[in-house]
Fold this protein.
Amino acid sequence: MESIGMVLSIFVGLGLSAAAGFRVFVPLLVVSLTSRIGMLDLSPEFTWVSSTPAIIAFSVATIAELAAYYLPFVDNFLDAITSPLAVVAGTVLTAAVITDIDPFFKWTMAIIAGGGMAGMVQAKTVVVRGVSSLTTAGIANPVISTVEFGTSLVASVMTIMMPLVAFGLVLGVLAWMLRGKKNKTPVADSPAAGTTA
């Protein structure tokens, strides 16, 4: 039974890390609030996440992040800042929710899997926003920002409320990340135009 709980906590951490790839501070705020009301157990070294100063700091940071992403081209600049922050947030979120486990294994999972998951999602969103900025002069960026915020919020809440959803979320994110790579097949060499046999 303990091993099941451990596996679920890992998937919760990865689900929250994926959410951090969309918005850095939204999952941190959700974890802060849900742990404060007793819905989520945190590792002892991360109890500060549910403190009043942390809740205030995450709330202010979330509002600032959301507002900034609605400013065309400022959002592209923010991507350069939030990309490394997303990796840090993914690492912290994964480490915070994995409890009763060997610290070496926990931090290995947190850094490689949690940070990696957040980084992969963030990288994908940077590409999507970049294409939108180039093709629509940033007009479509607020729509993308709204979708990213909604995805981050829903993923964070659902991951905590229903841990099995986190498993599906992780699989879905991995499928999303790999989808573009499967479509890239090498073009077969064809004879140059105008050549004769």
The chain has one domain: 2-165. Confidence is low (pLDDT under 50) at residues 185-197. The CA atoms of residues 43 and 100 lie 8 Å apart. The radius of gyration is 19 Å.
